[in-house]
């Protein structure tokens, strides 16, 4: 059970780090949103613009809280 927790923590940190890297990259917000949308589409997840904006805001909030 402890090994499972370590793996879950690692994967969570990996996802958070990737999100932070995308959000703080020196690109325009529109370009970043397009990249996130494309990644999600490849995974079979489709979001409208409002849902995408909410997702980006959630990720940004999580990144700020983690600092």
UniProtKB/TrEMBL annotation:
Keywords: Signal. Residues 1-20 form the signal peptide. Pfam families: YtxH. The keyword Signal applies. This is YtxH domain-containing protein. It comes from Phocaeicola coprocola DSM 17136.
């Amino acid at each position: 059970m402890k090994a499972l927790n370590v793996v879950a923590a690692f994967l969570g940190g990996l996802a958070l780090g990737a999100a932070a890297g995308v959000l703080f990259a020196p690109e325009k917000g529109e370009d970043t949103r397009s990249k996130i949308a494309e990644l999600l589409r490849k995974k079979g997840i489709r979001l409208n613009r409002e849902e995408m904006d909410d997702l980006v805001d959630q990720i940004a909030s999580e990144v700020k809280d983690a600092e």
